[in-house]
Amino acid sequence: MRVLLIGSGGREHALAASLAEDESVTKLICAPGNPGMAALGDCVPVNQTDPAAVASLAVTSAADLVIVGPEAPLVAGVADAVRAKGIPVYGPSGEAALIEGSKAFAKEVMAAAGVPTAAARVCKTREEAEAALDEFGAPYVVKDDGLAAGKGVVVTDDRAQALAHALECERVVIEEYLDGPEVSLFVVSDGKHAKALLPAQDFKRIGDGGTGPNTGGMGAYTPLPWAPDDLVAEIMERVAEPTLAELAGRGIPFVGTLYCGLALTSKGLKVVEFNARFGDPEIQAVLALLESPLGKLLHAAATGRLEDFGSLWWREGAAVCVVVSNEGYPGTTVTGRPLYGADEAGVFHAGTALDASGQLIATGGRVLNCVGTGASVAQARQEAYALAEGVKLEGGYYRKDIAANI
């Protein structure tokens, strides 16, 4: 099987590493890829949000399967263009990807499907935003309706800050605050059937102790030793399956990854958000424990044969991912500095490039993902931090409390 993987971040590097372990994957093409992915397959340039360009590359690459990693290409309709060429693609259509591309659409789908979630108001004006903030009170939760690379959400006790964020966005969703621990669950779907991966938990705030602004994610771990034994079954029954059925009933079957972001509140399970792809950095930890062949799994989903795939197999133990970020992230980052220690096993490139002299440099806000495994979360954490400590990047930063005391 020749696989074309679209994307260039840490999520895609982790996917590439798992695909390279699948004996059914005879050729891996990464577009545009990154320096870390270049060791696993051929990296070719492409405008990943241009549906026609990606579809053309899929044809010229003779791809048997196209996997679309990031959300922006999905919302742009890349999967539709590839499917129109008759090539199996793992990733939802542009319409189905609106489950992430529009938080208002996601709320509408959840209401129709009877999925538990936070009460919310969609706001387009200052007056509507102020009324919603007053209705729900602090802590204020304000979400940009569209894509924002994981940085469009503000959770604050400061009403002025909440209102300022609302006014920066064309349309926002303001909702009630959900208490309790958050859980991420990735659900692989072929449009009719679904399989859940291991649940994970990520850390969104930039600073230790959950301080500072939200980011795309500063670390994650799996599995969750504190979670109820029936948690995954409950999420599938009450959240994933009704949502997938609602989308299918609207004539937009969801083929790809439905990311269920949830809060285990004092009033029960509630959805915080949906995404239309694997979460970053949770999937880096989850894939570290997956024994089932990833290429075969995603091909089964892309071709409507997920029900025939069988049960997923997992390695014993735990995995922890620690994100090394650039100075200034999640605000204005300082890029172009030399980067060392990125070639160790378990280190995935999230924002890197080679300069004209061939030196590896940091180019993104999140630069590297350091993934450790072990018999327990504590052991996996120790390995992940050993990798992070080996990274040399001027101004580089990582949280010191990922998966602490688990």
UniProtKB/TrEMBL annotation:
It catalyses: 5-phospho-beta-D-ribosylamine + glycine + ATP = N(1)-(5-phospho-beta-D-ribosyl)glycinamide + ADP + phosphate + H(+). Keywords: ATP-binding, Ligase, Nucleotide-binding, Purine biosynthesis. Its EC number is 6.3.4.13. Its cofactor is Mg(2+); Mn(2+). Pathway: Purine metabolism; IMP biosynthesis via de novo pathway; N(1)-(5-phospho-D-ribosyl)glycinamide from 5-phospho-alpha-D-ribose 1-diphosphate: step 2/2. InterPro entries: ATP-grasp (IPR011761), ATP_grasp_subdomain_1 (IPR013815), PreATP-grasp_dom_sf (IPR016185), PRibGlycinamid_synth_ATP-grasp (IPR020561), PRibGlycinamide_synth (IPR000115), PRibGlycinamide_synth_C-dom (IPR020560), PRibGlycinamide_synth_C_sf (IPR037123), PRibGlycinamide_synth_CS (IPR020559). One of its GO terms (molecular function) is phosphoribosylamine-glycine ligase activity. It holds the Pfam family GARS_N. Residues 107-303 form the ATP-grasp domain. Belongs to the GARS family. This is Phosphoribosylamine--glycine ligase. It comes from Glycomyces niveus. The lineage of its organism: Bacteria, Bacillati, Actinomycetota, Actinomycetes, Glycomycetales. The gene is purD.
